[in-house]
Every structure is written in structure tokens, then in C-alpha cells.
Amino acid sequence: MTRGVWFMLLATLFFSLMNVAVKLLPHIPAVEIVFFRSLVSLIISFVILKATNTNIWGKNHKLLILRGASGAMALILYFRLIQEIPLASATTILFLSPVFASILGIFFVKEEVRPIQWFFFIISFIGIVMVKGFDHRIGLIYLLMGFSSSLFSGVAFNCIRKLNTSEHPLVIILYFPLVTLPITGIWSIFNWVTPRGMDWFILLMVGVLTQIAQYFMTRSFQTEEISKVASLRYLGIVYALIFGFVFFEEHFNLLVYAGMILTILGVVLNIWFKHTQLKADKNIFKGRLTN
Q1: What is the pLDDT of residues 132-176, one digit of tens each?
Q2: Staple 11 to which of 76, 215, 216, 237, CB 3.0 to 4.6 Å?
Q3: Range from 22-26, 37-41, 88-92, 267-271 carrying the lowest mean pLDDT
Q4: Contacts 24+ apart (CB under 8 A), 108-114
């Protein structure tokens, strides 16, 4: 097993532990949790950027702000979803993010979506319909909340794709808390719930676990081809099922499990197809150069 694979497995584990931490705080508003998470991220990112003498403000301010705002909305909705429905169900619905990212990529980066990819998207959506339809704990409002979170994640992802060629990765990360803190801070002033006892530690761990997960995910992408490790992120559903059962006694029927499998299958097939198509395009380009 390569280092890149190990890094991605660790990243997925720490993201899953962050989800558990959020679900352990059902009495703290999701917006307030995002505020604390963003505060930790801001401090860590700012310290690293200053230490490396990197311009923290970046160049493409409009796109950086859009990335921060869309990421903030996605995270607030996702944290709220985690608090309200089973952990594995919330994780599965968020797996639609790559689907929305591909669809939005048509407009953001002029990316072509082939007919077979639409078939894969339909498989994923059928899976989500099954998860919702056979689990009475997932009301329509929560399904819409999950779709909205995935949609905003898709916007954020496309912003990152456009920014990756012009901005330092840490600058892109920094703009998330820069935009999020004022939004969540103002809201929290009027809806503040004072954390008590272990709440403070759990809130700190939400931020710390996120930073650790992002570090390992970045290291994975740096040491291995993205196409080889991207699908490993969907092992998060396994972690979610295990942690949901151990910590929250969450159970599902077989049809819900089938829906989860269909959702992941559609996403993974789409990733596989894009990787295969990219390799084919590269081989065609190399062939033209040698002729």
C-alpha cells in the first residue's frame, strides 16, 4: 500500500471523527460550531502563511470570496444535517457533491459531460431517493438541506479548480474562515448558546480534526495520482456506519444500505470514467506529437 493511499485513509478517518464531534453537540447551533471551526482554521492557516512569507490576500478576490461563501453555506447546512439525521445518511447525501461539481463544471470551467456520465448521475440520485424513501428519519426538509449543501460544495470545488493555477493552496483555505467568521459571528451574537464543560474541548477538536484531515488529504494528492486515491474518500461511509452504530446506536434496513451503495457506485463510476477519458486524451495528444 503506497504512502498516498495511507494518507487518504487517514484523511477520511479524521474527517469522519470530525463528523462524530459535530453530532456530539446537538444542543449547539450548527452556525456556532462552524464559527469555532473557522476560528481554529484561521489561526493555523494564518500562522503558516506568515511563516512562509506568502501573500495572504491572494489575487482573484472575487473568486476567493465566492469560494469562501459557498464553502460556508455548504458546511453550515452539512453540520445541521449531521445533527438531525443518522451520520451515515448525512455522509451519503454529501457524496452528491462531485455530481453537482461535474454539472456546474459545464459552466465554470467549460467541462464536457458525456452522456454516460448523466447515467451515472442518475444512479446516484436513485440511491439518495432510496435512502430517503426507506428511512423515516429523513424528512423532505433534510433531503433538500443535503442537496443544497452538496450544491454549494460543488460551487466551492469549481472555484478551487479555477484558483489552483493562480493562488497558493493555503490562501484558498484561508479565505474560507475569512469569509465565514463574519457571517457566523454576527449570527451567533444574536443566537448564542454558551458551551459548557466538555463542549469546549469537542468544539476545539472539530477545528483540529479538520485541519489534520485536510493536511493528510493534501499530502495524499501530492504523493499519488488523484484518480488513484479520490475514490478512497468514499470509505467515509464505512466509518460513518461504524461510528454511527457505536456512538449513536444507528441502524438501517437493507433497502437503505442498497441506496447508499447505489449513491457511491454512481459517483465512483463517474470518477473512473473521467480518469479513463483523461488517459485516453493524453495518449491521443502524445500520439499526435510523435507523428
Answers
A1: 888 888 888 998 999 999 899 888 878 877 776 677 777 887 888
A2: 216
A3: 267-271
A4: 108/158, 108/159, 108/161, 108/162, 109/158, 109/161, 109/162, 114/273, 114/277
Q: What does the alpha-carbon distance between residue 238 and residue 202 come to, in Å, rounded to a whole number?
A: 22
Interval 252-275 mean pLDDT: 85
Distance CA 34, CA 22 (A): 10
Query: How far is residue 35's CA from residue 186's CA, in Å, rounded to a whole number?
Result: 10
Task: Give yes or no for a contact between 224 and 4, defined as CB atoms under 8 angstroms apart.
Answer: yes
Cell of 51: 511563516
- Per the prediction, the chain carries an average pLDDT of 84
Mean pLDDT in residue range 66-73: 89
Which band of pLDDT confidence, cut at 50, 70 and 90, is reported for residue 227?
low
Spans of all domains in the chain: 3-290
What is the reported pTM?
0.83
Could you give the CA distance from residue 67 to residue 113 in angstroms, rounded to a whole number? 23
Return the HEC string of the chain: CCHHHHHHHHHHHHHHHHHHHHHCCCCCCHHHHHHHHHHHHHHHHHHHHHHCCCCCCCCCHHHHHHHHHHHHHHHHHHHHHHHHCCHHHHHHHHCCHHHHHHHHHHHHCCCCCCHHHHHHHHHHHHHHHHHHHCCCCCCHHHHHHHHHHHHHHHHHHHHHHHHCCCCCHHHHHHHHHHHHHHHHHHHHHHCCCCCCCHHHHHHHHHHHHHHHHHHHHHHHHHHCCHHHHHHHHHHHHHHHHHHHHHHHCCCCCHHHHHHHHHHHHHHHHHHHHHHHHHHHHHHHHHHHHHC
For residue 201, give Cα distances in angstroms to 114, 177, 197. Answer: 47, 20, 8
